[in-house]
Amino acid sequence: MTRTGWLLILLVALATVGCARGGWISETMTLVDVTGTWNGTVYMRGGNCFGGGCERTLRADLMQRGAAVTGNVEGKIFTQLGGGGSGPVEGMVTGEVLSFKLPFHGAVTVVGDDMSGPLEGLPNCPCDIVLHRGAAPVK
Which among 77, 82, 86 has a CA at the least distance from the CA of 125? Predict the structure, then answer.
């Protein structure tokens, strides 16, 4: 077989291997834009919930550039974790999922102007977060 024939077989084999990977569209495409102000609630489902109830309001001001997300999050939950009332957030959008890190971390699914999902790294968790894009004040 000629050198060109072997090169053609190699190229076809490499193309086939690249296409066999599952979920490559959701891993490489950013399907949502989370830029804006998001307001909602953290629901704590374990333990004593810091006393005073198992729900904490949260506000997130987010800016997305490509898949990268930065911003600021504020709410009473930060005070209860021993910090001020707010903190910076960094995240990454993959498909329709925003993964982020604060003093706690999570991966929320974004559908239109709503996002929700589990949180980890908080005392008294498992926890869930539910946010809606809009300019409601934090309680």
Answer: 77
Place of tokens 């084999």: 13
Taking a C-beta distance cutoff of 8 angstroms, is the pair 56, 77 a contact?
yes
Amino acid at 53: G
Say what the pTM is: 0.71
Q: Which of 24, 56, 25, 29 is nearest to 43 (CA)?
A: 56
Q: How far from the centroid of its chain's Cα atoms is residue 115's Cα?
A: 9
- Domains of the chain listed by start with CATH number: 28-133 (2.40.128.20)
Percentage with pLDDT > 90 across the chain? 40
C-alpha distances in angstroms, 119 versus 4, 94, 107, 137?
54, 17, 7, 22
Task: Please identify which residue in the block is written with the tokens 């919930």.
Answer: 49
